[in-house]
Design a protein that fits this description.
Length: 245
């Protein structure tokens, strides 16, 4: 249908809005009619309907944010927990501080944001969490990140089950490699040219290339829309057919 907007009159809150996936998601939701509230450490360059700079390691900030958005928009229909940090290194390479900050951003913040949002949401609302293929299977040299992504996948399944009766659908996407600052920074810290590394990585993907943010965002939009009305507690892997690491 021409000019059909799937998210007309929907009110959304997006975390990680300044990141590779988040930026594209915000633009897409706005284009399809949603009012979008964004949060990240720095949202000054994001064009949205409400901007909330903040650190997701701050429990109070997470607990209070959904109500602020609800009051501003007079409703909250959509929550996307996109923000994440990748902490690299084997178990003996990571510190207590790494543990605490990773779990706070990747697990505790989505937990708090879901907990504060669900009571504000009416029937027809949707939450999408961003997990990872590494939330489904082990990956080498990143135990902290992998366990945090498994936790958010599990939280999604549990909440999907518990809140289906309220008509609130909660699902997750699990991307494999996506061309964003998170992936590129991993090459840069190792002194590897990211463009060249991605060319090599592309050869490992059966579909011929790693994902661009839009490849993931289109699946998130599907999960947020009525087109996925019978999906709840699902973990959707988006991997270009790459099952191995
Ligand atoms: N890029 C990949 O290859 C890939 C693969 C699988 C899953 N993911 C997941 O996708 C999601 C989006 O990642 P991306 O690739 O867009 O990465 P990104 O690094 O571009 O974006 C992540 C965003 O989260 C924000 N963030 C991090 N810590 C924060 C904090 N303490 N408070 C507030 N905001 C904070 C960052 O500022 C950043 O804007 C993440 O959850 C990530 O784990 C990414």
């Amino acid at each position: 249908m021409k000019n059909f907007k799937r998210f007309q009159n929907k009110k959304a809150l997006i975390t990680g809005a300044n990141g590779g996936i988040g930026k594209v998601l915000v633009k897409s939701l706005k284009k399809e009619g949603a009012s979008v509230a964004v949060t990240d450490i720095d949202t000054s360059k994001i064009i949205a309907d409400a901007n909330y700079d903040g650190n997701l390691t701050d429990s109070k900030f997470c607990d209070e944010l959904p109500k602020k958005v609800f009051d501003k928009f007079n409703g909250l229909d959509i929550l996307c927990n996109v923000a994440g940090v990748i902490t690299r290194g084997k178990i003996n390479d990571v510190s207590d501080e790494d543990y605490n900050s990773t779990m706070k951003v990747n697990v505790e913040a989505p937990f708090r944001l879901c907990r504060a949002s669900i009571p504000l949401m009416k029937k027809g609302s949707a939450i999408v969490n961003v997990s990872s293929c590494w939330g489904l299977r082990p990956g080498p040299n990143h135990p902290l990140y992998v366990m945090s992504k498994a936790a958010i996948a599990s939280l999604t399944q549990c909440l999907g089950l518990d809140h289906a009766h309220q008509g609130i659908r909660i699902n997750a996407v699990c991307p494999n490699e996506v061309n964003t600052p998170m992936l590129r920074s991993g090459f840069e810290v190792r002194g590897i040219n990211p463009d060249r590394a991605i060319q090599e990585l592309n050869k490992t993907i059966p579909l011929g290339r790693i994902a661009e943010p839009k490849d993931i965002v289109d699946v998130i939009l599907f999960l947020l829309s009525d087109e996925s009305r019978y999906m709840c507690g699902s973990i959707v892997e988006v991997n270009g057919a790459k099952q191995v690491l």
